[in-house]
Amino acid sequence: MQGWKKAAVIVCTALCAVAAVGLTVVAFAVDLATADQVGSLVGASAGLAGFLVSLWALLRSPATAVEASAGGVAAGGSIGRIVTGDNNRLTPSPPAQLPSVSPAPSTGPVSAAGSGSTAAAGNIGEIITGDGNIA
Asked: Radius of gyration over alpha carbons of the chain, in Å?
C-alpha cells in the first residue's frame, strides 16, 4: 500500500474511533434527545463525506470502453498472444515477453472490428492472423 493511502486509512480509523467514543460519552453524559441530535448530525456528515469520496473516486478513475465485433479481438489492457484465422498450426513456443515498463493504458475507447483485427489499450506481444500460418 502506498504511503499516503496507508496514512489515510489510519486517519479514517482514528476519526471513526474518536466519533464512536464521543457519541458514547454524549449518550451517557446528556439526555437522549441531545444524543439523538448529535448522532443525526454525525451520521449525516459521515454520509456526505462518503458520498464525496465515492464521487471523487468515480470521476478520477479512467474508463476504457472495449468493443470487438465481426471476429476482431480487443482488450482493455495488454495482450500476450493472439491467433486468428483458419488452419493455423502452432508450434510450442514460450509466450511473448512484454516490456517490463509499459506506458499507462489508454483511457479512450478500444475497438476492433473485422476478421483478424486487433486492438489493445496496452502492449501486444504477438499477433498471428490469416489462414494456414505455421508459427
From this structure: 27
Phi, psi dihedral angles at 98 (to 5 degrees)? -85, 150
The pLDDT assigned to 77 comes to 77
User: What is the rounded distance in angstroms from the CA atom of residue 127 to the CA atom of residue 110?
Assistant: 17
Q: What are phi and psi of 5, to 5 degrees?
A: -70, -40
pLDDT in tens, 32-58: 888 889 889 988 998 999 899 888 888
| Amino acid, res. 28 | F
**C-alpha cell, 48:** 456526505
CA angle 119, 125, 128 (to 5 degrees): 75
Q: How many angstroms separate the CA atoms of 131 and 90, rounded?
A: 12
Q: E strand or H helix at 67, and its extent? A: strand 66-69
| DSSP H helical ranges for 1-135 | 3-29, 32-60
Q: How far apart are CA 45 and CA 81, in angstroms?
A: 50
